[in-house]
Amino acid sequence: MLDVLKTSWALLLGMLLLMIGNGMQGTLLGVRGDIEGFSTFEMSIIVSAYFLGFLFASRQTPNWIRRVGHVRVFAAMGSFISAVIILYPTLAHPIAWTVGRFVIGYCFCGVYVTAESWLNNAATNDNRGKSLSLYLLVQMAGIVTAQLFVSMGDPAGFALFVIPSVLVSISFAPILLSISPTPAFETTKRMTLKELIKISPLGCVSMAILGGIFSAQFGMASVYGSEAGLSLREISIFISVIYIGALVLQFPIGWLSDHMDRRILIVMVALIGGIAAIVAYFVDDNYALLLAAGFVIGGCSNPLYALAIAYTNDFLEPEDMAAASGGLLFINGLGAIAGPLTTGWLMGVAGPEGFFAFLAILMLGLSGYGVYRMTQRAAPSVEDTGSYAALAPSGSLVAAEAAQEVFIESALEEEGNT
């Protein structure tokens, strides 16, 4: 871990600042939208636009990098992010915010792709897994720290929008001043969705469902808090515990993943997350129980993302793993676009508690589908499964492909030992 820090500290520091900026603007919009009088459905469209932009950029950013290079793409995307964040309080209109969120989603994807390319290039086969774990830690720490900043200001003013804009601008300095070699960027040949779904129906369904869950957590949690009458400080703490839970439970679930049938683990984790969402639905007037439920929901839903990728890899040959990552993330992206829209509709029908109803339905649905899939074919033996690699849903295709490299190395090592 220390070796990774020595070689990539500047990149990780820059990513920490970027994640603080992204976490702040994600929470701020939900709170400020309520102040501006935006409806829940309008906010759901605004939130969904981020993931639509992210999905578009995941396909187009590699072409930009090939045309003008990593540094120019990184600097250009960052400039747009900083500008849009500053414009939010100036152009407080649903259409303007929707366009802004699309642009920010597009640009953040471009920034992630570029930064993750550098990080992956700096890693070796021996420390790539540790590098991904450290990257996950930085991502979660950034989002949690962002909530601390949000709780200290006034969302009705301009200052809280200036801070993430400045942080995003500053974040590029340590990265651009320390990066010397420019990594080669090659796009892996994609596997068709039809092939991928045939290979692992549970993996694909999981990725679609988890896309909806993560986008609801990231974009609609602050909308829920505002609608439920929570104070700014309470909203910030609530969002923080979701990501603290994601970080704390990521590695225990990863350890279990390598020592048992992954389908059973998916069913169990999704079931526990769904029960926690049901508890939150009925006890939202008890803040302490709400925080406990948020911790469990975040701790179950986020590790499921990496678990679904690991499970899918169990049915792939090593040479096909990287090709599958693009399809998995595309499916996840479609779910992420639909998540906020469905959540907004449910909150309009059932009130703020619709946020937890949405999470409960998806988590329990995933658990039930996992039970069904267990009746359709036998699971591979634990000895034949690859290693779990910690991975956050907020990463780009490059991070997913880096995780696949960890799986590939593990699979090839096991083949060499047999």
Describe the protein.
There is one protein chain. By secondary structure, the chain is mostly helical. Helix content is 81%, strand content 0%. The protein starts with a helix and ends with a helix. The mean pLDDT is 83.
Secondary-structure blueprint:
Elements: H1 2-36, H2 40-68, H3 70-87, H4 94-122, H5 128-151, H6 159-178, H7 193-199, H8 201-227, H9 232-257, H10 262-282, H11 287-313, H12 318-350, H13 354-374, H14 397-417
Helix pairs in contact: 1-4, 1-5, 1-6, 1-8, 2-3, 2-4, 2-8, 2-12, 3-4, 3-6, 4-14, 5-9, 7-8, 8-9, 8-11, 8-12, 8-13, 9-11, 10-11, 10-13, 12-13, 12-14
Describe the structure concisely for a colleague:
With 418 residues, this protein is mostly helical. 81% of the residues lie in helices and 0% in strands. It is globular, with a radius of gyration of 20 Å.
